[in-house]
Every structure is written in structure tokens, then in C-alpha cells.
Design goal:
- The complex is a heterodimer of chains A (about 80) and B (about 575).
- With about 80 residues, chain A is mostly helical.
- Chain A has helices spanning about 5-35, 50-80; strands at about 45, 50.
- Chain A is built from two helices and two strands, in the order H-E-E-H.
- In chain A, strands 1-2 form a two-stranded antiparallel ribbon.
- Chain B has helices at about 5-25, 30-35, 40-55, 55-70, 75-100, 105-110, 115-145, 150-200, 205-210, 220-230, 245-260, 260-265, 275-290, 295-310, 325-335, 355-365, 380-385, 390-430, 435-460, 465-490, 495-515, 540-560, 565-575, 580-585; strands at about 340, 375.
- The relative contact order of chain B is 0.17.
- Classes of the chains: A mainly alpha (about 80), B mainly alpha (about 575).
Amino acid sequence: MRENGQNSEYWAANLRLVGVCLVIWAVVSFGFGIILRPMLSGIEYGGTDLGFWFAQQGSILVFLVLIFFYAWRMNAIDRQYGVEE
Amino acid sequence: MDQYTLNLLVVGATFALYIGIAIWARAGSTSEFYAAGRGVHPITNGMATAADWMSAASFISMAGLIAFTGYDNSSFLMGWTGGYVLLALLLAPYLRKFGKFTVPEFIGDRFYSQTARLVAVVCLIVASVTYVIGQMTGVGVAFSRFLEVDNSTGLFIGAGVVFCYAVLGGMKGITYTQVAQYIVLIIAYTIPAVFISLQLTGNAIPALGLFSEHTASGQPLLQKLDAVVTDLGFREYTSHNGDTLNMVLFTFSLMIGTAGLPHVIIRFFTVPRVADARWSAGWALVFIALLYLTAPAVGAMARLNLIDTVYPNGPQAESIAYDERPDWMRNWEVTGLLKFEDKNGDGRIQWYNDGSEAYAATATARGWNGSELTVNRDILVLANPEIANLPGWVIALVAAGGLAAALSTAAGLLLAISSAISHDLLKGALTPNISEQGELMAARIAMAVAIGVATYLGLNPPGFAAQTVALAFGLAASSIFPALMLGIFSKRTNNVGAVCGMLAGLGFTLVYVFLHRGWFFIPGTNSFTDAAPMLGITSLAIGSVGAMINFAVAILVSRVTAEPPEEIQELVESVRVPRGAGTASAH
């Protein structure tokens, strides 16, 4: 626990990043995949609507992007605050 | 060469490979036994995690679950993958930094409480044991269908192989066999799917084939499927027929349950650094997605193929005569998983939704007297290569793939159980002075005993086995996940709060499940059913509410009781920062 002030800034940066990622996580799955599906019903895709695609494939693809984006950003933030291993 | 010999050769070869790995990857220390010496590359660990996570349920059952229900069962697809986002963002890197060996150990240390650790051990054992029963019965079924031995012989062979690599190699042996098992299962899953997709849509990638044109009719595949299922009185495949609230809560329950399952979490203890734990969760999802993006395609295409088999000239025309049914139907009739009963005595197979009131008039007009075909949803994936007329070696590969999926998950669960016993109960509570070599021996014995118990339960599955898999997720969601998350993200959560929260979440979920499925799953003792649930929420989806209760109770109780001591707050600070993980691991 070197400089405590800097650690809390580091933690705040992490929480912001986690927050943004989790909002996207919820919007594509619970949102586009389930609750907001009626809103997307006008957008046709592959014989059905975009909501069906999000529920069966789209959300999984977004999850993948989210994890790699988080890992990449977070590893950069580690270095920025000098707390990497 | 006949099919039986082929099956024997392919399955035998994969088993020889697993045993070879077991001999090569023996564990020499507790660190190797519990965490593979923390030297596993993140991509290797991702692949092992994928095999660890994808069980007989993912490999065999999931496509069938989607095929027979359609859109409404998308919960499984989103829930079982979305959990990895939570794992990567909220748990895995911090637990890796903590640098110990088991999940209860983190809960015990962070909440400075033996009680909390023991509650976590109980949750872990209940969740993992119920889960392992399903894997062992899966092994028995796969053996009896493909190798023509009886269930129990199959189970003994499977248990023997797991015994070799899990007892000798611990996490180290399990890691490298899981990598091999992943490769076997993904090839076995993909090859039949590619051929079926080519036959139906001309697209070699099943995930894209699902949204392409059905070659025979010129319509989009999903439109074609919607049309034929509604022609037979079934609900439209792509439409949302269930209840939105339950779908959301069930998906959420699967997500946090996945993130809270100890056998998945401990896989992330094996990578060298915190940054690797983050990457590794991403790689795990890459390898899982290869199967999960294919599964909905397999489900939709298998449903269409099945209807096509029964109604070769379309559902409006006459169905197939029983005597002209294809060979694969005959093969599966022998197992009892596919049944035909000629209710109207016309010698033809009618398969339709006889539960639909709207369709009843049409059925009567066509001279039908009830649906005559019963298809167990688990056979879809296993029968796929036969339905698509693929060569014998593909069938043999699917057999080996199903076994790989069941065995890899069983081994991961058994490790979580045995390390909770040797490390948390013996080393942590009963015999704290045990030596390193003594603990390693205890871990091996615990593993051997766990395999014995799992085999026994696989041979004599309790009547409630099928029901309890849902319970395993509910338990992990309502007890373990909130405790871990608060332990990392809330410094203020103390020992009393965490224990009260876990007991409240666990107690609420258990009671709610028992109220709907019978007390201790004894039939007839339930007061409600999932068709008309107490709070309008089914017992499958209740884990999410249990988790919310856990969070709320833990936060409130912590607020009115004493702050955690200084050194615990420092522990939380250090868990949040990657630097120093190397020293922490050499404990």
C-alpha cells in the first residue's frame, strides 16, 4: 500500500470501466434479447427479427468483445498507475 | 469395420490419451495439486475452463432444449455465457490476486470467520455433488448406447479413467486432460453440425446457416421452421411465448450461478498473473462460444430435419408409414429414448402438438388421435450424424465427445470437492498442523473417496437428481456469488453481515424450491407448482431473488455491526491491486 490516494484513483478508474461494460452487458442480453425485443421487431434479420439474433448469438459476441476490451483497458490502467506486476 | 469396433477404437484412443497425460502430469506438491503450480498459460487455461464448464448438459442437452422450445430457451445461451463477463470483471482477477487455493478459503479469510468458511464449504459441496451426479449418469448413458455395455460397467470404466488423472495429477493432470477433452468435444460437435448446415442451407458455418436461406424451399430457414411447426399446432419457433419476468430472472440466475460455481473459479487460480486471469476469461468464452454459437443452429436444424423425416411431403400431407421409418429411428427406439405408439391404428407416425386446443379440430379432421411420437430431447445431438447420414467415424467421434464433456466437468467438480475437504476442513479447521506431504496425501484420498461417492450416486441416482441441477445454480447464485462480490467490492461488509447474508440467500432459495418441488424433493409435499408459482416466479428463476436478499441482508447487517478490523481492510486493498500477486502465491 504505497500511496493510498493513488490507489483509490486507480480503483475509481476500474469501477468506471466495470460500470460501462456492465451496462452494455445488460442492454444486449436483458435489453435487446428479451425486454426490448418488441422494439427491434421492425428490424428484420435472417428470416426473423434482430432481437432473436441478439438472444441466440449477438449477446454472446458482444460478451466476447466486452471481456477482451476490459482486459486490454484494465491492463493499460494498471501500467498507467504503476500497479502492474 | 462395423460401427461397434469403430466406437471402441475412437473412444479407446481418447481414453489412452487421457491416461498418458495423467502419467506425464503427476503432481508433486499441494500447489501443483490444487492450482497446477500456477504456471498455466492463459489460452491453455481458457481451453481447459471451456471443457471444465461445458458439461454433458451443454454438449448433449442444450441443443435439444432449444430445438423443442425455440426462442424462450435462449436463456441458456445468454445465461451460461454472460456469467463469464461477471467472472472476468468482478471475480477472477481479484481472487487470483488473493492467491490461495479454494473459494471457501477466500470467504473465511476475508470475513475473518471459520463459520463463513464452513457455510461456503457446505454450499460448495451441495452444489458440486448434485452437479456431478448428472455427469456420471451421462457417462453411463453414452457408454451403454455406443459401446453396448451396461450402464454400471460404463460408469466403472469412466470413473477408473478419472481416478487415474485426477488422483495422480490433481489440478495439473486435470488441466492438460481438459485441454485434450476440449479438442475432442469441439470437433465432435462441429463436424455433424457443418454437414447438416450444408445440407439444409449450403452454408458451411452452422452459426450463419441458421440465418440463411433454406435451400429446398427458398425461404429463410427460420421462417420455414416457423411455418412447419405452426402447421402442426406447435408454438412459433422464433416468438416469445413465455413470461418476460421469469425469462429475465432465469437468465440472470444462470449468469450469477455460473460466476459463482467454485469449480470454474478455481481454474483461474492456475494462471501466473492477474492480467492473465483477465485474458484467460476472454479465451474461455472464445472456446465456449465456438460451441454456443453452433448450438442454436443445431437445435433449429434438427427440429426441421425431424419434422421432415416424419412428414416427407410437408406437414400438410400424409406422414411417413411406420414400416418405412429410417434406420436411425430404429436404433434409438431400442434405447427407449424414442417411442412410437400407433394411437389411431393407421400404421403411420403422427407427430403434432396434441396439447393445443386451437389445433384439436384440425387433428380430428385429419383422423389423428393424439401425438404418436415421443422424442427425448437428449438424443438430438447424439443422433445428428445418423440423421444426416454421416460416415461411421463421425458417430464414433460424437460418442467420444459426449464422454469428454461429461468426464472433464466431473473431474473439475471432484477437484473442487476434494480440495474443500482436504484444504478447508482438514488443513483449515480439524488438523491445522498437517504437513505439506500429509495434506497432499489427504487431498488424494479425498479425491478417491469423492470419485467413489460420485460413482455410487451415478449408479443409484436419487429420484431428485434431475431437479437438483437447477438447485445447484440457485445455490451458487444465492450464496457464493454475493459473498465473493461483496468481499471484493465492499470494504464495509463484515463477518456477521456476510454470514447472515449467505444464510438468508441460501435459506430463502432452498425453502422456495422445496415449496415448489416438495420438501427434500419428496413428491407430493409441495404447496405450489412451477405452473402457478407462489410469487409468480418459478423455482428455476428464484436464485436471482435469493442473491438480492443475500446482498441486502449482508449490507444492512454490516452497517449496524462493527467495522471489519484494520488488517482486513488492508487485505481488501491489496486484493484490488495486481502488484504483488507473485509473492502472495508462495504461501
